[in-house]
Amino acid sequence: MELQDQRCIVTGAASGIGRAIAARFLQLGARVAIADLDESAAHKTADELGPDGRAIGVRMDVSDEEQVSAGVAKVVSQWGGVDVLVSNAGIQIISPLEELAFAQWKKLLAVHLDGAFLTTRACLPHMYANGHGKVIYTGSVHSKVASHLKAPYVTAKHGLLGLAKVVALEGAPHHVAANVICPGFVRTPLVDRQIPEQAKDLGISEKEVVRDVMLRETVDGEFTSTDDIAEVAAFLAAFPSLALTGQSVVASHGWFMA
Ligand code: NAD
Predict the structure, then answer these.
(1) Largest Cα–Cα distance of the chain, in whole Å?
(2) Which residues partner with 133 through β-bridges?
(3) Which CATH superfamily is domain 7-186+225-249 in?
(4) Domain definitions of the chain by residue range
(5) Distance, CA 167 to ligand 1 centroid (Å)?
(6) In the chain, what are the helix, strand and coil shares in percent, each to the nearest 5?
(7) Is the pLDDT of residue 50 over 90?
């Protein structure tokens, strides 16, 4: 498997899963734009992961149309095109539905769904011009199942499945594939932040949140790792045909079995 000279954009790549995907793509020979809301972390990550200049940091709030256009334009002006988009940036908001502020609902959908739409729309013309491309969305087991306290997240992650299927259909004549990776719980800052919040909302200890809520349905009580998800992303990015398009790949230690 190799991604030699593939021009990749990974959003939310200054942390967690996105960072691991960027690192794996670089190992496989790709050039990777580390696109993140946190501009200084994006540049720092690019310096750390790609000291030979194959990684660049890009400021991008994926929910901001102008920033997405400018960020993708920067990558295209530097490298001449885009071959792979990993739309991965995400946030979590934990709240019972009846207490959730409308602004919080809209904020989460903006990052996950507007972000996926805007980055896809900005990259597709370059992929169509190349005559090939891969679009990969970071969904979740929450693209398949629901959990308490996560209404906007579950809604957004289900929505990505629909978007991927449309991109698969419309992209096919241009040899552009679109797929969704659905991770189980991965120990990243996004998850670390929600453990105490869930413990408070559910009235249980943090240890119980991990054992009885997050990992209860897995086959082995294990977290999925960032490296596991990076490996799935590399597989999808390097897959040679459209046999694999419009699909979702669940990597969750058996939490969800299709
Ligand atoms: P993380 O908090 O470690 O990293 C998220 C990154 O996204 C951060 O660098 C942050 O600055 C960036 N970001 C946030 N809002 C942004 C915006 N508007 N524009 C651009 N960048 C933005 O989180 P993570 O766990 O690595 O999550 C990455 C993706 O994986 C998310 O889509 C998340 O929903 C998904 N996911 C995570 C888990 C998990 O258990 N950690 C499981 C399933 C899916």
Answers:
(1) 54
(2) 176
(3) NAD(P)-binding Rossmann-like Domain (3.40.50.720)
(4) 7-186+225-249, 187-223
(5) 22
(6) 50, 15, 30
(7) no
Report how far apart, in Å, the C-alpha atoms of 20 and of each of 12, 23, 111, 226 are: 11, 5, 20, 6
153 catalytic residue (yes or no): yes
Name residue 94's amino acid.
I
pLDDT at 201: 87
Provide the percentage of residues in the chain whose pLDDT is more than 90.
Answer: 95
Q: What is the pTM of this model?
A: 0.98
Give, using CA atoms, the residue closest to atom 31 of ligand 1.
90
Residue nearest to atom 39 of ligand 1 (CA): 186
DSSP 113: I
CA distance 16 to 168: 27
Beta strands in the chain (DSSP E): 7-11, 31-36, 55-59, 84-87, 133-138, 176-183, 247-251
Q: What are residue 217's phi and psi, to 5 degrees?
A: -90, 0
